[in-house]
């Protein structure tokens, strides 16, 4: 285990060391202490390493992650794991706005709650939130799965494309073109796998599935009010 | 009785200046279809522009440099503020961001070839980086857009600079649009979208709003790219003084300011014609902001929107820009709107010079299309050569003017070299009306 004191040794040093790790490294386990809400912690990683951040972070923690596992023992600011490509990001606490925004792949697990716009414009990432999510989540979400064990706020899945949304609790309101959909066997399988990988204590059968009604895919004047 | 009627003088039919034929046609079109007009290109209305400025060549009070004999340098370095590797260009004319999707693969390749041969940079666009353009562009600027289509850290690290797109002159405050006809398999895959849908790009970035967030976003991008490459911020011209100041405050290396004449691949006509301010009007306020913050020339200013000739380049630089970017003119150099396709333009209900339905994907010149047969009409090597020639001509023209004004570098052109033909241009460019020493707003008069 390598320990890096962010407060003492600075952001640039930390990110350049972590970014320099390759698949062959035997220093696979890193611990970041004293994050103290700093922004851009452990961004742009691209190696199968494990990074544990001991404390809470600011914006864009684990941004654009590839391969690495980043575990935050605390809460995170806006845009955690934004544009993640692969790997795993686990947040023990809560996440601020835009968690997992535009993510293309990998798994983001938030053990607390996530604020508004969780999974905005997601493009293939899987997000599992143990708690609740805020309004406008999965806005323009294109692909991937968003699993919410608690409740969802207003306008869930507004202008959704092909992402799948699974919510166990209540949904305050659905956004334009987002509808409840039939839960088929294949969806239960996806859910079971994600819940297990995210360590979430919930059963797939307890969830409802939401997706795009695909009514806004091509412009139609009769739908103008929904645009 | 009838004979009498014939002798009464008639009023001539008078066309309304308000309800013009084009306006009425648009009312009928809207009534028939229920959708606003979408088109490519920039503002077509006449607005004060570089044509309204003239250079004051040297005479007794200043002496000129010998054309072709005495040096007049044209190089420019972008990104000197924070980047470890600033971009060095031989000429101050760059190719603006135009997306693969809006343009065909061969067209992107041609832009790369032409720009590289002329010693300048190209820019990606909404839809991500293609191997064609990376492969053929010596210097490639990677756009970071609200949609984040195709955005990935590997391509980000391949870029020679990153351009955070906040807005475009054709549609400040608007998002992108790519209609179903142009969403081919390849475009759909790059954007992670179903084929054939009308694809809307967001108008705002998904993970930041406002200048304080932008500062943190720039920090993140720098951390991911090891502070190597310059970070540009591109805005559509609306409030140039404040937008420039805030971009500088957020940590930009370069500010790209795009005026309302700037082209687009597809936007509502109402947006193109009615939102934003002319290119001429945005340069002085942007330069003023840089000067007030003490960073003029340290944070470079790139101006775009309706740049067509070496004279336009020279005028933009004289007003304080470090470089310019071209979109539409580069497409015309490749072969867009060429009269040789007139019969095909006619079939599409338009004519050479007016063809702007770039979003429909039926471009006879094979540039703004994803149709393989049409795209094959453009030979990227030939078209690249034409672009190179055109870029060289623009540079020679700008040099001719700079020498005539007595300058040994294009960057030594200054507002004092200019005068204005109209009151509007004088006010916007803050240079005197020709033959006077006055411009509107100048103190002491
Ligand atoms: C076909 C086309 C596609 C464009 N695509 C983009 C884009 O993806 N991103 C962007 O920031 N600007 C885009 N633009 C705007 C240009 O980057 C640039 O601002 C504009 O073309 C400059 O004005 P000009 O066309 O008068 O030279 C596009 C312009 C055109 C003509």
Automatic annotation (TrEMBL), chain A:
Q: Which domain of life does the UniProt lineage start with? A: Bacteria
**One Gene Ontology molecular-function label:** oxidoreductase activity
- InterPro entries xref list: Glu_synth_asu_C_sf (IPR036485), Glu_synth_lsu_3 (IPR012061)
What protein name applies here?
Answer: Uncharacterized protein
UniProtKB/TrEMBL annotation, chain B:
Which stretches are tagged as biased composition: Low complexity?
113-124
UniProt xrefs under InterPro entries: Aldolase_TIM (IPR013785), GltB (IPR024188), GltB_archl_type (IPR043578), Glu_synthdom (IPR002932)
Q: Which GO terms describe its biological process?
A: glutamate biosynthetic process
Q: Which residues form the Glutamate synthase domain?
A: 81-335, 359-408
Q: Which GO terms describe its molecular function?
A: glutamate synthase (NADPH) activity
Disordered: where is this region? 113-137
Instruction: Please give the Pfam families that the UniProt record associates with this protein.
Output: Glu_synthase
Enzyme class, broadest EC rank: oxidoreductase
In the UniProt record, does the keyword Oxidoreductase occur?
Answer: yes
Q: Which UniProt keywords apply?
A: Oxidoreductase
Presence of the UniProt keyword Oxidoreductase in the record: yes
EC numbers, comma separated: 1.4.1.13
Q: What family does this chain come from, according to its entry?
A: Belongs to the glutamate synthase family.
PANTHER family linked:
ARCHAEAL-TYPE GLUTAMATE SYNTHASE [NADPH] (PTHR43819)
* The protein's name in its UniProt record: Glutamate synthase [NADPH] large chain
Gene behind this protein: gltA_2
